[in-house]
Amino acid sequence: MKSVVRKVSSFAGVSVAVAAMSMTGASAAHAEPPTQGCPYPYVCFYVDGNALNAGTPMSKYRDVTSAYQAVTPRPHYGVLNTRNDDVVYLRLQSGGSICLEPNSETVFTDSYRVNGIKISSSSTC
Fold first, then answer.
1. Which of 31, 54, 59, 80 is least surrounded by Cβ atoms within 10 Å, i.e. has the fewest?
2. What pTM, to 2 d.p., does this model score?
3. Could you write out the DSSP letters of every residue in 18-63?
4. Do residues 70 and 78 lie in contact, with contact meaning Cβ atoms separated by under 8 Å?
């Protein structure tokens, strides 16, 4: 009989904790609102700065990788990183790379063409 009483009181304690979390608005997961058409936790590419401002991305990436993923090289790319803790390395066709900090964006001019992306779990460049 004591084990039944313990189980019932244990269940009641869990129910009270769940009810308290519901009343305080506590949540296990928090989804961020989309930014310029790019939802968290994505890195989005835009045809140009106008498309970035209009919120119409042409491609989205979200996987942390150890190597670069290929991106079709074009001029005027706009890139938006909605990730909170991860930097993005953008490989340039002319050589080298540019690091994009968390929650930031950039637009490239004709002289730069991005041909690869690597999302890193590092929070700083």
1. 31
2. 0.71
3. HHHHHHHT--S--PPPPBTTB-TT-EEEESSHHHHHHT--SEEE--
4. no
